[in-house]
Amino acid sequence: MFSDLAGLTEERWRREGYREAALPDVALRVFDELSPHRHLPVDELVGALLAVPRLPPQSYGSVDQRIVIPHHGRRFYLEVIFWVDEVAFPHHHSFSGAFHVLSGLRLHTRHRFEEERPVTAAFRLGRLSLEAAELLETGASRAIHAGDGFIHSLSHIDRPSVSLVIATDDPAGEPQLNYKPPHVAHAARHGDHVLAAQLRALELLADVDPARHVETLRREVARADLHSSFELLRHGFAAVDAVAFADLVAATGAPHELAAVFAEERRRLWFLQRRGETSRDARLLQALLLHVPSRRAILDLLRRRTPDPASWLATHVADLDLPFDDEAVAVLRQLLAGAPPDDPDLAAALADAPLLSSLFCP
Ligand SMILES: [Fe+2]
Predict the structure, then answer these.
(1) In 3-state terms, what secondary structure has residue 65?
(2) How many Å apart are CA 259 and CA 211, to the nearest integer?
(3) Ligand 1 center to 46 CA (angstroms)
(4) Could you tell me the distance, in angstroms and rounded to a whole number, from the CA of residue 93 to the centre of ligand 1?
(5) Distances (CA, A) of 221 to 191, 211, 224
(6) Which terminus has fewer CB within 10 Å in the chain: N or C?
């Protein structure tokens, strides 16, 4: 199958003069004609990988992902990516091509980023907003266009979820950015050696002298430039507890954009920490709550899967293991079912809870 995919892509793209902008359409037509999802079930893929005699050089965009490159040609490559529970940040790519869902339901979202405070090419402040959301089933394919005109994210619902990618091997010069909602765009690797050394020193302090670590981090954040503040706070977010981190953000007078980014990061972490233990429906609901900030849009997506999306929400919100007592969960279910709540004060408090913000934003 991989040699058929590579051969057909090569033949069709050569006819287009190997123009980068032509590869997405070529790849979509190749996926459409060869239907790789019918020929590459997960079990066979795993078996083929275990038995593989040789592979082309493997160069990975991110070591965190389970990636295999079965074909690496002169101008494009094929990539198989296995996902378990991952919820990608919105990002854009420096390559063009297309991805195909070999297996596994996933939520695919498209975003727009409007820059408001230019900083550097590798760190930008602005506003990220949702443009479109869709649920992709096995067999679906979507184009990837290089650059920040195509910002997307994928939240994988099934375990595993497997993607096949056809991508140009001629990356554009600009850095590939990740987007931290609602305000930051940043390069995955900051490339600042001084900052890298500071972060290593802080990691050491966090291990051996936590009190001095917090004090030092506070001093460094307060005097750092904007991009460095963001990277230092990212380190702090992972290294100290939620209360100490909130103190750090307040004490250092971090810009409101950064405070909002880390508040959203806290909400995201709450869902992600529970992702592996939940049912498929709960994982779908988690993904919707994380990436679709509007109740109407969530209901629209669910309508294609269930005849009564409001009652689906009311049923599965209980699977989320929310940090509320039984009474609050009962009121939440009443709200989601459209019934008048028994306790209006509790209902108002729930509507303000950050974890549920998507459900109470019309
Ligand atoms: Fe992507």
Answers:
(1) coil
(2) 22
(3) 22
(4) 6
(5) 18, 16, 5
(6) C
193: Cα separation from own chain's centroid: 27
pLDDT tens per residue across span 290-327: 999 888 899 999 998 899 888 888 888 877 878 788 88
Q: Which residues pair with 107 in a beta bridge?
A: 135, 155
Distance (Å) of CA 145 to CA 99, 134, 150, 167, 197:
11, 18, 6, 10, 35
Are 77 and 20 a contacting pair, CB within 8 Å?
no
Between the CA of 10 and the centroid of ligand 1 the distance, in Å, is 22
Structure token pair of residue 317: 């919100």
pTM over 0.70: yes
**CA 355 to ligand 1 center in whole angstroms:** 25
Torsion angle, CA of 254/257/262/268, rounded to 10 degrees? 170
Tens digit of each residue's pLDDT (9 = 90 or more) over 233-278: 999 999 999 999 998 898 888 888 999 999 999 989 888 888 777 7
Q: What is the CA radius of gyration of the chain?
A: 22
